[in-house]
Amino acid sequence: MTPPPPSTTPSSELYKKDDMDFLRKVYHINNSNPLPPDTLLCTNTMDVSGLHTNIPHDDGIAACRTALEAGRERGAKPSSSFLCRLIHLILSLNFFIFSDNT
Question: Per residue, what are the HEC states of 30-51?
Fold first, then answer.
C-alpha cells in the first residue's frame, strides 16, 4: 500500500477525519478570525462509505453540472463550469482510504 501524501496524514492540519472534524475546524477558525459572510467553503462528504468509488466520475460531474445549471441564476459566481472543474480536481487528485485500503 502506498502511504498517503504527507499533507493528509492524521498529524497534519490539512487532515480531516470526517465531517464533524471538518466542521469543528471551521468553527475554531471562524471564532479566531471570522470568515467574510460570502465565504464559499468547498468540501465533499467525507464519511459516506463506498459511495465515492461507486459513482463514475464523468457521470457524477455531469449530474452536478445539470443540478447547478438548473438551480442557479445565469451568470452566478462562481460559475457552474468553474465548480465542475473543482469537482474534477477533488475526484482526480484526492487520496482515498477506507478500512486501511486504498
Answer: HHHCCCCCCCCCCCCCCCCCCH
Once rounded to an integer, what is the mean pLDDT over residues 43-72? Answer: 75
Total domains in the chain come to 1
**Whether the Cβ atoms of residue 79 and residue 60 lie closer than 8 Å to each other:** no
Distances (CA, A) of 47 to 7, 36, 58, 74, 99: 19, 27, 21, 32, 12
Q: Give domain status of residue 70, yes or no.
A: yes
The answer to the question of residue 16 being in a domain is: no
Q: Which residues pair with 101 in a beta bridge?
A: 98
Whether this model's pTM surpasses 0.70: no
pLDDT-derived band at 66 (thresholds 50, 70, 90) equals very high
- Residue 44 included in any domain: no
